[in-house]
Design brief:
Largest sheet: 2 strands, parallel
Helix content: 55-70%
Number of helices: 3
Number of strands: 2
Order of helices and strands: EHHEH
Radius of gyration: 16 Å
Strand content: 5-15%
Shape: elongated
Distance between the termini: 12 Å
Oligomer: single chain
Length: 84
């Protein structure tokens, strides 16, 4: 009830994969093959099935990369919620 803004951060698939590779190789000590296998077998299909469809219900969609207009819209909306 206190917050009813739905925000979807639309990040390119390549960017998501690169971030996952970096994290899993460095932090989790996994191999490149393991990360790529998991991504293609589980992560990408689950994203397409469960995450991507939620974009249709978002009030604000922030495109990949920094987008000042979207950030300003979020800040303004949150400011309005806090002041009410």
């Amino acid at each position: 009830e206190l917050c009813n803004i739905k925000i979807y951060v639309d990040t390119e698939a390549d960017e998501r994969l690169v971030r996952r590779l970096k994290r899993d190789l460095i932090v989790r000590g996994r191999t490149t093959d393991d990360v790529l296998d998991q991504y293609t077998q589980y992560v990408k299909p689950m994203h397409n099935q469960f995450v991507e469809p939620t974009k249709n219900y978002a009030d604000i969609i922030i495109p990949s990369g920094y987008n000042e207009a979207s950030v300003n819209m979020v800040v303004s909306s949150l400011g309005n919620l806090i002041s009410n």
